[in-house]
Amino acid sequence: MANIVPVPKKNRKIQICIDYHDLNAAYPKDDFTLSITNIMIDNTYDFERISFMDDFSVYNQIKMYPEDEKHISFRTPVAVYCYTVMPFGLKNTSVTYQNAIFHEHICKAIECYVDDITMKSYDKCNHLADLRRTFDIMRARQLKMNPIMSFLGVASGKVLGFVITSKGIHLDSEKIRAIQEMQSSRNFKELRGL
Q1: pTM of the entire predicted model
Q2: pLDDT one-digit tens code per residue, 131-176
Q3: What is the pLDDT of residues 19-49, one digit of tens each?
Q4: Full DSSP string of the chain
């Protein structure tokens, strides 16, 4: 039985996390791995149309097997509960999501990293049909996308700190601005003081 851990989020809301440290230690590591980000980025440019989608509460959309629910129970001051969907914090959750749902389409029409989904089309005329197939997969699995963080049918967009276009890959200037504006240290003593 696990304990709850309240974690403050950037938007000032509280996210309740469960400490599954003991369960994760006892659970075998999944044979599948997450996408290698460099390969994912390389596989995303050179397309006329791209759709960038952000999955809404990705982990909470994967149904648990009913017989496994007892293993993810947690206690609160009021009672003991268990999730009926896969909670954040379990080992292999990201890999399960990525491989179970989009396995046949990874490195083809879809690139996926945790909750970031990139759907790509070589020909902008086919993008709507490709997007419809992707949405059919999501609908069949009852996945919900975050419309505020999703951009459909665009010629360029941001993925994992890079700007992807049909012409190539560029660093996201917002991500490197802090480094560019950093003042250089004048001597070794200043560096040690950091």
Answers
A1: 0.63
A2: 999 889 888 877 778 888 888 888 888 887 788 887 888 888 887 8
A3: 888 888 887 776 555 556 777 777 777 888 9
A4: -EEEEEEE-TTSPEEEEE--HHHHHHSPPPSS-PPPHHHHHHTTSS-SEEEEEEBTTGGGGSBPPGGGGGGGEEE-SS-EEE-SBPPTT-TTHHHHHHHHHHGGGBTTTEEEETTEEEEEESSGGGHHHHHHHHHHHHHHTT--B-GGG-EEEESEEEETTEEEESS-EEE-HHHHHHHHHPPPPSSHHHHHT-
